[in-house]
Amino acid sequence: MRNVILFIKNGHRQNRIIILIALLAAFLLANIYTMMSGLYEEGEVDPVYVAVINKDPSVMSEAFLNYMREDLGMQVLTDGDYDFFVNKLIDRDISAIIEIKENSLKNFLEAGRAGEYELTTLDDYENAAFIKVYLESFLGSMDLLIQSADHDEVIFTQMLTAFEKENKTVQSENAKAVDHERLKAVQGMNMAEGFYCMFIMFSSLAMAYSIMEDKERGLYDRIKAAPVSPIQYLLGSITFTFLSGIGTIVLFELYIRIKGDEVIIPFGKMTILMSLFLLMGIAFCLMASLLCRTKMLMMFLIIGFLSIGPILGGSYFPVDRVPQAVANISRIMPHYWFMNAIRGLCENASMKIGPNILVLVLFTVLFFLIAGCQFVKRERKC
User: Fold this and answer.
1) Are strands 49-54 and 75-77 parallel, antiparallel or unpaired?
2) pTM for this one?
3) Is residue 269 within 8 Å of residue 345, measured between CB atoms?
4) Which residues pair with 77 in a beta bridge?
5) What are the mean pLDDT values of the chain's consecutive 10-residue runs (382 residues total)?
6) Which own/partner contact pairs does 223-232 have at CB distance under 8 Å and 24+ positions apart?
7) Which phi and psi (to 5°) does residue 50 adopt?
């Protein structure tokens, strides 16, 4: 153990480049996080304009208009007839027309369930899909109230009023603003973690290059004459690189805390995932340095892994956006399992990441085993 610590201290003096890379990686991650969050804000679209033809003035239609305006933040136009709004729809001034038929509430109560509001759209497929989902969500809520009211409009009105009052009491913040801030943080986190898959490998590349140089200079043979062993030398290099990488992770998390953004991913889970990916990268680079006979071959292998690996593994974009053949290949990359966990935690902080951790551990063990076998093979030859 004392000899391993000695090599770590030597690494601190001889491999300052690793510390520099770790600091630079933390700086770049923080900038990418901030930049991508800002790009989301700059890339916001104009408010969605929707026309509502309300032929049934009632508490339910009034609740629907409030839902569209206040909860969803849409611009709702109500002054005009169907022909007027159709022209606006053709001119792309509005995204949809929602028509509330006469006696809709009365008919819904008589039927004992909420029916449908008529929705008219053209080719604004993205907004139309969202509007349809929101419309179905509202009508689904009304359906529960109508069934509970048992055909009684007075009871329905009382329940709807209580429901709206409760929602306004519970939601003290504007839902749109909260969602907006969260989406900004998610955008920044996803892109920062995607680039982390590449940046963190450079420290391991520097470690592998140092090991390769020492191997070419015959350091292993000279170590045998000293009271230390080559395995202690390798453990010292690995530990030093790992601790430098942990510094990158800590600095990045500290930046998020200082910035005051919403914590999208619990820091504990994020630290575990980032540390495992760091260790996997160290294992891969160690394997490459022991397997390859020349620096050029080793550099080619590692740079290929740190540049093409994130693309194939979906570090910069979800793999469900690529052809199925590429998506199948991505699953054999450790980057996929890392980013799959990160994106899943961004959507649901309580997501179970056990399978992803297990796969990353297996990749790490595999690379270390290959490196160990090659090391033992070399020792026997000597």
Assistant:
1) parallel
2) 0.64
3) yes
4) 51
5) 55 69 91 80 64 88 86 85 88 87 83 80 73 83 82 82 62 47 81 91 89 74 58 80 93 90 86 96 93 90 91 83 76 93 87 93 95 80 60
6) 224/382, 227/3, 228/3, 228/6, 228/7, 229/3, 230/375, 230/379, 231/375, 232/3, 232/4, 232/7
7) -135, 135
